């Protein structure tokens, strides 16, 4: 069931900030004048050449000049919107305008100055005051804070600030941010804390806060759920969502020297804002059936607020100085278009995703559990009173329905503990028991005590949980008789009435102004022809001036369009150039078949407008690779259980999964022979032996070694000095005999330098 309001247009208000110190010091001319009573903004061109040009006039729902107070804006413009959120409508407040014109000032204001607090803190106060004054209603308030920067959504309340969130859509609840954290808040202080944490995360993430905030959109979301007993005797839940949006600066981002990443950044920065403009144009146009909500994250997220079921207020912020004139005019034109968007606000009653319902159900479930526990407890108590000494037997005692449960909670557990302790002592002192029996009984008692303790803890935990959950549900009516509260309420009512009256006056004056020409004509009765001519000439002049103004406006808009088109063309050229490079690389350096494989796997994800790759293995597709059957895991092909067991029992080739036999390697037959040194002639050998025998003092290690064996080394030993070591062909492993003192690598040999393994032998 949903109740709806009559269709209403997006409310657009304009606020002009005061001249800042720099502008005053430089003596900039003020080109904006504000007629608060008529709701008009007049911008005149300060240039000499255009002195003849008539000033540009824009009419809005309300306008605020540099003297406007934050609270006036709140009472006149935002309070009715927040009131409708409290009734269960969705509401959105946008702050639009050039950087430095007061968007953040309007939305947040100066934190520590109650007079300069913006819409967000004022709405906190409003919501919680409303709740405290309510009667027979239960509320749940939660807050989220997110930021959109370069088309990426960041959760400002999450611990992991590097994480980017995605948008999802459900047919019942519409577009939402997946995994966005939201905090249930019980008071103004708590929700302010949430806002401060988000603001800190916003500034920490950027090197230059001003630059960052001028390029990103911040959205603070307050969800108010209210449960009330309906006439049908059922509890009904209404959910109102308030989006408070501080948009990026509307000025054109400079794209000088845009290249690569910079270009990508430049094309993304204002995408959400231009998409917002396109959505507004499409909505106002009325001819186009397609509204390009999907073009950006911002428009998708706030789809409801533009032509949807929300109440929307747009605050256009402008600067008064002459050098801002172009941007001021663009802002005024932009917001002038938004005035004509029609919304159909509707109360969200009993939505599926109401957190309040979940809370209520969970509390009821926990309470039931507690009830059960206390029921059991009472049973046991009765049993105890009946004087039954036997433990462990189940006695079916009727529970008496008394409400004294809460009072005896503490002593019940105490008594039980004392009783168990007494029994334990009695067992200890009872000497008639056999030791084993005593141990058994003691163990039993200890187990019982442990159970008792656990049960008590569980009960306490349950109670604490119920209390914590209940404390989050807010109920009003506590200090309804409070005198000051009553007075405040009356005061607010008066303020509201005054605001309403002002609005009516303004509307009437605007109406009068527009009908002026007609009424003038109706009232006039011409006494003479000349008078008729005079009056009609006057009227003609007026209409001509109007026509000129409209013509000038058309001219300006056309010029603005041409400028915009030129910029878009330039961006397009740059992007085309970029694309050509990529194309060239692909055509020349990526193999054709690889390219076609990638192309056949690629698909566009409609959700987030990204190209993604299909996985190579897809089970559902028969033509693609399938997963291996269970009986083939670890084998080349499926094997039956019998074969597997048979293989384990005895390695039989019959059951091998492969018809490959594992055989030992055949070593190749030797085709070489060892090098044989020529025989040394006996005479030479004898001469050598003689010579060696004569020169005892020559100390050669090798001989030293042999001298321990005998007086003369054998001839073979001498020859082995020159022999190659290996008996195997060269292809074999190099064998070295580490025990041989003749080995070149043998350490400590003074005869041969030690090999460092650097030079191949
Ligand atoms: P934006 O968020 O649009 O970039 P800010 O809100 O940061 O602009 O405002 C820029 C400066 O102008 C701030 O110092 C702010 O205090 C001041 N300012 C803006 N609007 C007003 C106003 N209505 N009254 C007083 N000071 C204002
Ligand atoms: Mg700002």
Shape: flat
Share of helix, binned = 40-55%
Report the mean per-residue pLDDT as an integer. 78
The major pleated sheet works out as: 10 strands, mixed
How big a fraction of the residues is strand? Answer: 5-15%
Number of helices: 20
What is the CA–CA distance across the termini? 94 Å
Question: Number of DSSP strands?
Answer: 19
- Going by helix content, strand content and strand pairing, the class is alpha+beta
Q: What ligand species are in this complex?
A: adenosine-5'-diphosphate, magnesium ion
Stretches where pLDDT is under 50 for at least 5 consecutive residues are 389-407, 703-749
Radius of gyration: 46 Å
Note down, in words, how this protein is organized:
The chain has 761 residues and is α+β, with helices and mostly antiparallel strands. 46% of the residues lie in helices and 14% in strands. Helix 2 packs across helix 4. The longest helix is centred in the last third of the chain and has 61 residues, at 529-589. Mean pLDDT is 78; it is low at 389-407 and 703-749. The structure holds adenosine-5'-diphosphate (ADP) and magnesium ion. Residues 17-18, 97, 99-105, 214, 317 line the site of adenosine-5'-diphosphate.
């Amino acid at each position: 069931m949903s109740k709806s309001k009559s269709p209403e247009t997006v409310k657009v208000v304009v606020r002009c900030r005061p001249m800042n110190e720099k502008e005053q010091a430089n003596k900039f001319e003020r080109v904006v004048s504000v007629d608060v009573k008529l709701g008009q903004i007049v911008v005149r061109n300060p240039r000499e050449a255009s002195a003849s040009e008539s000033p540009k006039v824009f009419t809005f729902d309300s306008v605020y000049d540099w003297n406007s107070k934050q609270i006036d804006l709140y009472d006149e413009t935002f309070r009715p919107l927040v009131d409708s959120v409290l009734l269960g409508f969705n509401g959105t407040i946008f702050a639009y305008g050039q950087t430095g014109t007061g968007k953040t000032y309007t939305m947040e204001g100066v934190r520590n100055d109650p007079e300069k607090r913006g819409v967000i803190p004022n709405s906190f106060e409003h919501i919680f005051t409303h709740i405290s004054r309510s009667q027979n209603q239960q509320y749940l308030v939660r807050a989220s804070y997110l930021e959109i920067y370069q088309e990426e959504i960041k959760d400002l309340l999450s611990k992991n600030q590097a994480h980017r969130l995605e948008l999802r859509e459900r047919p019942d609840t519409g577009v939402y941010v997946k995994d966005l954290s939201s905090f249930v808040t019980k008071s103004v202080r708590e929700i302010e804390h949430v806002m401060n944490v988000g603001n800190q995360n916003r500034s920490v993430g950027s090197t230059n806060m001003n630059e960052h905030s001028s390029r990103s959109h911040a959205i603070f979301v307050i969800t108010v759920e209210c449960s009330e007993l309906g006439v049908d005797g059922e509890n009904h839940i209404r959910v109102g969502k308030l989006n408070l949006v501080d948009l990026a600066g509307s000025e054109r981002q400079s794209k000088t020297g845009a290249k690569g990443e910079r270009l990508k950044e430049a094309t993304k920065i204002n995408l959400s804002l231009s998409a917002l403009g396109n959505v507004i144009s499409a909505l106002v146009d009325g001819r186009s059936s397609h509204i390009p909500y999907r073009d950006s994250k911002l428009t998708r997220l706030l789809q409801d607020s533009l032509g949807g079921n929300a109440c929307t207020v747009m605050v256009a912020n402008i600067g008064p100085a002459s050098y801002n004139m172009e941007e001021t005019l663009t802002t005024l034109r932009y917001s002038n278009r938004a005035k004509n968007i029609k919304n159909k606000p509707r109360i969200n009653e009993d939505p599926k995703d109401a957190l309040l319902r979940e809370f209520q159900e969970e509390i009821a479930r926990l309470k039931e559990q507690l009830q059960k526990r206390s029921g059991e407890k009472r049973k046991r108590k009765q049993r105890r009173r009946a004087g039954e000494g036997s433990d462990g037997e189940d006695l079916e005692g009727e529970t008496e329905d008394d409400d004294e449960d809460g009072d005896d909670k503490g002593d019940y557990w105490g008594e039980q503990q004392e009783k168990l302790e007494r029994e334990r002592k009695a067992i200890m002192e009872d000497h008639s028991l056999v030791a084993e029996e005593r141990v058994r009984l003691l163990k039993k008692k200890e187990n019982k005590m442990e159970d008792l303790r656990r049960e008590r803890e569980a009960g306490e935990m349950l109670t604490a949980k119920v209390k914590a959950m209940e404390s989050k549900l807010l109920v009003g009516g506590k200090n309804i008789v409070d005198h000051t509260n009553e007075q405040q309420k009356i005061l607010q009512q008066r303020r509201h009435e005054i605001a309403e009256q002002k609005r009516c006056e303004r509307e009437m004056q605007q109406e009068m102004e527009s009908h002026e020409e007609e009424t003038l004509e109706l009232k006039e009765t011409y006494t003479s022809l000349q008078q008729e001519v005079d009056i009609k000439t006057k009227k003609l002049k007026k209409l001509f001036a109007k026509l000129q103004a409209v013509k000038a406006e058309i001219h300006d808009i056309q010029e603005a369009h041409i400028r915009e088109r030129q910029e878009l063309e330039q961006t397009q050229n740059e992007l085309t150039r970029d694309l050509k490079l990529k194309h060239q690389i692909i055509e020349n350096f990526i193999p054709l078949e690889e390219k076609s494989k990638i192309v056949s796997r690629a698909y566009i994800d409609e959700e987030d407008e990204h190209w993604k790759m299909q996985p190579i293995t897809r089970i559902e597709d028969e033509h693609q690779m399938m997963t291996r059957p269970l009986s083939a895991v670890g084998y080349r092909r499926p094997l039956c259980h019998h074969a597997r067991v048979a293989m384990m029992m005895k390695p039989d080739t019959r059951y091998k999964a492969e018809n490959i036999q594992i055989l030992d390697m055949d070593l190749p037959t030797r085709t070489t022979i060892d090098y044989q040194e020529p025989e040394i002639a006996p005479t030479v050998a004898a001469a050598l032996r003689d010579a060696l025998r004569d020169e005892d003092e020559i100390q050669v290690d090798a001989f030293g070694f042999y001298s321990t064996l005998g007086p003369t080394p054998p001839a073979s030993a001498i020859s082995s000095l020159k022999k190659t070591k290996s008996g195997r062909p060269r292809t074999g492993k190099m064998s070295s005999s580490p025990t041989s003192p003749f080995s070149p690598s043998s350490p400590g040999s003074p005869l041969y330098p030690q090999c460092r393994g650097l030079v191949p032998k």
